Amino acid sequence: MFRPKAWVLLLAKPAFWAVPLGQRHTHTLASFREASRLPERRLRGLLFPFSELEGHLAPGVRRGEFSLFQPSVRDVSRAEQLFTPSTKHRIDYFTSAVRMDHAPGMQQPEVCFIGRSNVGKSSLIRALFSLVPGLEVRVSKTPGHTKKLNFYRVGKAFTVVDMPGYGYRAPEDFRDMVESYLEERTSLVRTFLLLDGSVGLQEVDKIAVEMCEELGLPYVIVLTKIDKGSRGVLLRNLLQLQEVIHRHTGGCYPQPFLVSSTQFSGIYLLRCFIAHVTGNLDLEMAVNQGTPKGVR
Question: Is residue 55 packed enough to be buried (19+ CB in 10 Å), middle (13-18) or exposed (0-12)?
């Protein structure tokens, strides 16, 4: 089990308020079909954000692990269909839970998103579901009172679970709830650990990485807010993170994913990865020769 003292640093007390997606304007780049009309270079930067950093790497730096997941354009388009609602494919907020015995007993594959407060987790979930008019997204307003897991159902394909942000002064029962979910949820196929790309790996994030390793979770690190700060700072933070993944992890997918929820960089790729790891999308081409750890 994960060390109790570490959880005091990890877990926070978020309060939530509902934001109907339909009350906001849909982003012009929400659909990959719309983005595909852009000039090729800009489209590639949106689809594979690392491509805009690669030219700045020093000779000798390992490049392969930054682009292991390389789906085809058709793969990305097929994945987007899963994030697009229809009469036969309903996408909605399903329920919330404060304890594991309150969690819905769903059989379909599940992915969860964790990260420290203000990392941009709710913004990322809104971006992923930006093609769903009227979706109610539960957004952290201020550190406060309720402690919930929020479940979003994507038809019969999979479920997305939004976990409260971790931080300081967490109540003990919340620690038990989060640990129980991560350790016992049999439908959980992938945990997405979000880090702020503009500030890099923090001490509390290292504890979260250790937690995932201790629990034996297959997990993926996602760098958010890559549009914030300079490209040099982002590249430095990315290289430091890659070194940690390479040297100190066993269950982490070798490739960090880069996203900007405001510019939609990396959103299409992340949708495709989620569709793939939940068993809803067979790629036209192998992810890589030998299949990286953590990918089925």
Answer: exposed
